[in-house]
Specification:
Oligomer: single chain
Shape: flat
Number of strands: 7
Distance between the termini: 67 Å
Helix content: 40-55%
Number of helices: 16
Length: about 400
């Protein structure tokens, strides 16, 4: 088998150590391998980098082991080309992996060009990605804390969530603060309602009649304090993300022209894809990488669905949420598409299809630097009518008829 890369390194990464195998040519034409182990501390990684540079290594490859690959990758990327490998791709290559050390096996596969790298964004995008992903985690914390508060109020027979949309609304927070302060009269508590909630005061009186004692007050105060801290952190994170995403302001503005895509979703799309569509061969490749394209298993000429495709969970969840919002829009292609699919396949599959369409649109918009152009709600009907006409004409021609199409005015 031909050697594609002369001087390569394969790295097997753990939490505390990294094993490196360097493969270089011998003067007599053979191949030589040398293996060393380094600690994953910064100074040890610098020693590893200097050794690899001294060996003339131009390409290094490593498996994406948890998050342990990041310090190693970042230490090497400025001095040589680095490939991050998908473990599933490694397992798909037949060989003596169980009998050979992982680093040696990676180096052998790499020198023969049998591996392909995964997408690793440049440093500015990586920093933006850290912020957007942490914001998602904070939003999850806020949802979970609100759920805990609601369950605790159920224990006290306080049914605010049965009247208000959430226990974290302005009116609900005012009532809870008064409850914690010791006010027990439901009539007084209900009068704290604001805006549209004032029309529900009779229901609020019933919902606020319960058995809220000192222990409930202590728990509610702790939970509300935690919610306040999470919400303050979210405000700070939004400001940090806005500052970090300023170089991609034009792309974010374009993405927000897609129905259902708001500022946060647009920021996630940029953070996860890098905003540079030249890294992806096609829109279909991007959709498959993100995990919104259906997997297909083909054997002996027969193709069967293989369930959902694994991909970028952060991007997929943002796109599905945007698709759910787009489904509620009026007179748009995305709403018509999801309504059509939901009637046959269900709402969840319709949302994934909508997410796929949003990502396809984002690909071409960012590639061409142009805003979204909606096809309109009737586009699918027109395409179906045209396909139906072609199918009927073909059937008539097979029966020996000559068909002349005379469309109605």
């Amino acid at each position: 088998m031909d050697v594609m890369f002369e001087r390569v390194a394969g790295l097997d990464i753990g939490k505390k150590s990294v094993t490196v195998c360097v493969r270089t040519p011998w003067p007599d034409g053979g191949r030589h391998g040398e293996t060393r182990t380094f600690r994953t501390m910064t100074r040890s990684l610098e020693l590893m980098r200097d050794w690899l540079v001294g060996q003339g290594v131009t390409l290094a490859a490593m498996e994406s082991t948890s998050t342990y690959w990041k310090p190693v990758f970042y230490a090497l990327e400025e001095r040589m080309e680095c490939w991050l490998l998908n473990a599933a791709h490694m397992k798909a290559v037949p060989g003596r992996k169980t009998d050979v050390k992982d680093s040696e096996w990676i180096a052998q596969l790499l020198e023969h060009g049998l591996l392909r790298p995964s997408f690793v964004p440049p440093p500015p995008i990586r920093r933006l990605r850290l912020l957007t992903r942490y914001r998602v985690q904070l939003m999850g914390d806020r949802t979970r804390d609100a759920g805990r508060l609601e369950k605790m109020l159920e224990d006290a027979s306080i049914k605010i969530s049965s009247v208000a949309s959430s226990v974290t609304t302005v009116s609900a927070r005012a009532m809870l603060a008064s409850l914690i302060a010791g006010e027990a009269d439901p009539e007084v508590l209900a009068q704290l309602a604001k805006g549209k909630m004032r029309s529900k005061i009779p229901d609020l009186v019933e919902a606020l009649t319960g058995h809220f004692d000192a222990d409930h007050a202590r728990l509610a105060a702790a939970m509300l304090g935690r919610l306040d801290r999470v919400e303050a952190a979210l405000v700070s994170m939004d400001e940090a993300i806005a500052a970090a995403s300023r170089p991609w302001a034009r792309q974010i503005q374009l993405l927000q022209t897609i129905p259902g895509v708001g500022l946060k979703t647009a920021q996630v799309i940029i953070a996860e894809t890098g905003g540079d569509m030249s890294r992806f061969p096609s829109a279909a490749h991007l959709a498959a990488w993100a995990g919104v394209a259906p997997a297909i298993h083909e054997s002996a000429g027969r193709r069967t669905p293989a369930g959902a495709r694994h991909g970028n969970k952060w991007l997929t969840s943002a796109l599905v949420e945007a698709a759910a919002s787009a489904a509620r829009s009026k007179n748009t292609y995305l709403a018509a598409q999801q309504a059509r699919i939901a009637s046959r396949r269900g709402a969840r599959r319709a949302q994934v299809a909508g997410a796929h369409s949003i990502l396809d649109s984002a690909y071409y918009m960012l590639e061409r630097n142009e805003p979204y152009r909606d096809l309109g709600p009737e586009w699918l009907h027109r395409r179906y009518d045209q396909a139906q006409t072609r199918r009927l004409v073909t059937q008539l021609e097979r029966l020996g008829h000559t068909v002349v199409i005379d469309p109605a005015a």
